[in-house]
Amino acid sequence: MRVTLVQGDITEQRVDAVVNAANSSLMGGGGVDGAIHRRGGPAILAECRRLRASKYGKGLPTGQAVATTAGELPARWVIHTVGPVHSAEQDRSAQLASCYRESLKVADSLGAASVAFPAISAGIYGWPLDSAARVAACTVKAAHTGVEEVRFVLFDHDAHTAFQQAVESSGPTNDEIVAALSAQPADRWREVFETGDVGLLYQLGVVVGFDWPLWRRTTTVDVAGAPVSDAVRLATSIVRAERFGGPAPDLDMLKPILDRLRRWYETER
Ligand code: APR
Fold first, then answer.
1. pLDDT computed for residue 239 by the predictor
2. Cβ neighbours of residue 166 under 8 Å, at least 6 residues apart?
């Protein structure tokens, strides 16, 4: 997956799907929502009405996503998602992360190869730009999706700068993690499996630099059934937490992590 950044108007993007920062009514609004309905035309609203009359009678819940036609837009689909309103008291990062994750799942169900995202919740919903960018970049980089290009479309310079910094510091993509695993020498892997010491992954250079506290707060992982890159991210969060403090490391996660790494090593690489 390539992650790209553009400063511009999301309604002008020539991608398979553009993501709309909608509200749960799906009946339009201001900001991105207003622009997409204005430029996309009535066909979009007509499909939103049908969604409200059927599956989403009570509205689209926060963090979920649903697709409609893109009407007159250059894109093929609009994927509507509802971001959380920012709260100073409550950490709603997991709901914001869900907007990106669920939108990519919808994109995969459509067969969309390129998806443009706005800075969800960073406008009317009041989410501070830097934080919104970190959640967006961390979630997209760790997402398991067939989408080939994720394009963040930022409306102004400040947003573009915030997202550029977040993307640059959000660590490797899953493909890059697997490439790093494959580059490790066999004898080092044997040592990891014989000793059971996940800390050795640190020396193997397999522990990755990314915002692991944010990822842990916004992601539930069943490591046995997850792609191997999730095992590496979990290992990183344990190794880092032991060394630098942070959420108590789930030491009972060590065995599932090692089992998952061993399965990758023996059957998938
Ligand atoms: N293209 C790209 N980005 C845009 C555009 C556009 N045409 N218009 C606005 N933005 C940017 C804003 O500057 C902000 O950074 O998109 C980001 C998200 O802003 P909003 O559109 O206000 O979305 P959000 O904060 O998620 O609030 C959603 O606003 O429009 C209503 O109906 C919508 O109730 C919902 C709420």
1. 81
2. 130, 133, 134, 136, 137, 138
Output the DSSP codes for 35-87: HHHHHH-HHHHHHHHHHHHTTTTT-PPTT-EEEEE-TTSSSSEEEEEEPPPP-
pTM: 0.95
d(CA 68, CA 199): 47
The answer to whether the CB of 124 is under 6 A from ligand 1 is yes
Centroid of ligand 1 to alpha carbon of 230 (angstroms): 31
Task: Name every residue whose Cβ is closer than 8 Å to that of residue 54 and which is 6 or more positions away in sequence.
Answer: none
CA–CA distance, 65 with 21 (Å, rounded to integer): 10
Exposure of 87 by Cβ count < 10 A (0-12 exposed, 13-18 middle, 19+ buried)? exposed
Percent of the chain with pLDDT over 70: 94
User: Does residue 158 carry a catalytic annotation?
Assistant: no
CA distance 176 to 76: 29
